[in-house]
Write a structure and sequence with these properties.
By secondary structure, this protein is mostly beta strands. Helix content is about 0%, strand content about 40%.
Length: about 475
Amino acid sequence: MKNTPLLLAAAFLLSASLTAQNVALQEDFSSGVPPTGWSLENVNGAASPGWIISIAGDQRAQHEDEAGSHTANNRMISSPFDLSTFTDAYLHFDTEVKYPDYMTNHPSSKGDGVNAVEISLDGGVTWSIIWVDSSISANRGWATIPLSTYVGTPSLQLAFHYYGSFAQEWFVDNVTVSDDPSTPPPPPSSWIVNLPASFESLPFSCDFETTAGIIPPWMALTSIDTATMLPSIDGWCNMGQLGTASPAAHSGPYCLEMGLDPNSVNTPNIRNTMVIGLNGAGATEFDLGFYMVNHGDETHPIDGIWISQNGTDWYSVLRDWSSVYMGTIWSHIPVGDLSGFGVDVTTDFYLMFAQEDNYPYAYLDGIGIDDITAGPAVSVGPEYAITNLTAGQTATLECSNNSAGDQVIFAYSFAGSGPTNTPYGTVEMSMPISNINPIPAGANGTVSIPAAIPARIAGLTVHTQCVVLTGGGNSALSNALHMVVQ
């Protein structure tokens, strides 16, 4: 079992359990590329490795950008499947593209790349295009393609067709053809990690000061080189046993630091994890929250927070640190309820924070974690969230956890993440900073407003934060958000 993406709405996520009534084709590439019954076609005979199993070890099908003078033109062709008894059908697959600006249909295209899905009714002699990748940013997510035109057909094949000259990278996983229009639920993943020997009861908090550099029995750390899957001297999974935090922790001298050794001159790919054993017996609230900094971490399949009952099957709670928060000023991340991920949190369970990358901590890479809480939600002042930040659509901006009548100012910048000193404190926005006029919080202390997102700003990163005027000349700052407009 292996990784699948979960789509983030701010930092919250809830997975639903959905089962297709009829499944015609299903493949997760856990047996390799091509899997049994599938085939590979080098269309133009160029010196191209074509479709391979992911070099990151996460068991996805991958097509590299392939530096060189040739043009890669490769199909990965499915085994035949039968829709003769179906009344409706849909193709779902997990897709990720890197370097999308090298695809020909990108608004700022640098190349000739094309990612396409094709279908054949005659055993692969002729192909019809049913989907073309229109990604404008390097995001991972689900694609769903209606196949209603082909219901009643007894023998069909799909092809994932890559074309490009030193162009994009494309990853494909969890291919399903069924009569269910809903996105399939993600299966659990497997990771090589150390597990703690005991479990702490909820409510739980960890500021890393009480442990003071001594790894407690309810915590286990792992730091390995992904090329060898063995411990590496360049790894840096530090909660104080290797030294106090540098730069500073959110509170006190200790926090969790994940990256390469700050003094390393090498750049191997290092995977770091911290697993905490928890027990929710008797608890009625299971909210997770923490503070984090992100020094520029790049996306890897294990990045994020995972939960497991047995320490073997891991379910994703939060994915992709760069989508959650980018910034070197500590920000609170309210993840939300842990009880919606297929794990019984009223008994023993494991919670894992994971990071992978290849530069020293606090130098272009690395994730810092501090002041973790699990149980009742912790009030940390104004909380800011944005949903549906999509070009050409209407987003919702919401600032909660205020007092009724507080004046909330929504401020934003496209220039950078600051820091900038202002009369209200140090904000995580660079000048120039724009703002929306103050809006009073309602009786529940929340301000929620719609915001039309111009189509022209797709792909830009917006840096945004709320200033709350609380009366008597006082003010407070919300958490900052650094989000890419989809």
